[in-house]
Each structure stands twice: as C-alpha cells, then as structure tokens.
Amino acid sequence: MKHLPKHLQPRWRYLAVAIETWPDAGVGRRAFQRELWYAGQNLLGDPGSADADLRVMRFELEDGSGGAIVRVRRGEVDTARAAIACVDEVDDHPVGLRISGVSGSVAACSESYLGDPAPSSTQREVAFDGAELSARRRNGAVDVDTPTGWVGATVHDTE
After folding, report:
1. pLDDT confidence tier of residue 129, bands split at 50, 70 and 90
2. Is the sign of the CA dihedral 34, 48, 56, 6 positive or negative?
3. pLDDT tens, 36-86?
4. What pLDDT sits at residue 127?
5. At residue 120, what are phi and psi to the nearest 5 degrees?
6. Which CATH superfamily groups domain 10-114?
7. What residue segments make up the domains of the chain, in order of their start?
8. pTM score
9. Going edge to edge, which strands form the sheet with 55-62?
10. Is 21:96 a contact under the CB 8 Å cutoff?
11. Residue 98 and residue 100: Cα distance in Å, rounded?
C-alpha cells in the first residue's frame, strides 16, 4: 500500500493539558483517554468527535499533579479544547484540567508547556480544623487527608 503524498497527509496540533487531582487518585492513561473520547462524543457527536480525533500521546500523573499531551487535527483545536473542558472526573476521581498551550510537535509541546509535569510534593502533619492531620503540600496548595476524604486548602488555612 502506498503512502499518501505529504500535502494530503493529516496535519496535527498537540495540546498540553495540566492535570490536578487528589494525591491518592488512581488515574491512568487508559481511563483518561476513555473520558476524552466520551467527552468528545457527548459534546460534538460522532462526526465531530471523529473529526477532532482526540488521542493521548503522553500521560504522566504523580502525587495528584501531572500533565498530558493530546493530539488533535489542525482545524479542530477549539472544539478539542471544549471537549477537554467537559472532563471533570476520571474513574470516579475528580480532576481539574487546564490547557497550558498548543504546539505543532510533541517535543515542542513537552518542552514549552509541560516542563516538569510532576512538581515535588512534601508530606507533613498540619493543624486543620482543630485536629492534627496528614497533608501534602505542592505549589502553594495543601491537600489535607481528613477522615471523610481529601480537602483542598491553602497554606494560610493550615497555620
């Protein structure tokens, strides 16, 4: 089978997606890909989802923060952004997604927008709501492990 000439081959754009969730969330690449497909299909319908062709090229998530690179067709960047914005949970774990940027290659996307997709976090004991609880701190945000689940806080909330 012959390859298509270069001028007929599809052109791609790569979206850098910053991901944030609770530190103990078990979110994997496959589950994230599935949620992207569902979001695209629910928002854009079958033809629109096929036109956008959302595909996860890279996925890293560690201690509740990380990043992904999502490939989309060149003319479908805006619709892909809308579909990604519709994802609010993966495998029953709430997630926050933010598009950091758009690039023409995976390498440029990774270098320009993801840099270090998994910033370091530290675990320590904090006084929160009058009790000593375990917490993880990263980039000015604090995730406090309470008996009823994780609670998002700031550094000022724990002092």
Report:
1. low
2. positive
3. 999 999 999 999 999 999 999 999 998 888 999 999 999 999 999 999 999
4. 62
5. -70, 150
6. Ribonuclease P, Pop5 subunit (3.30.70.3250)
7. 10-114, 122-158
8. 0.73
9. 55-62, 65-73, 12-21, 93-103, 89-90
10. yes
11. 6
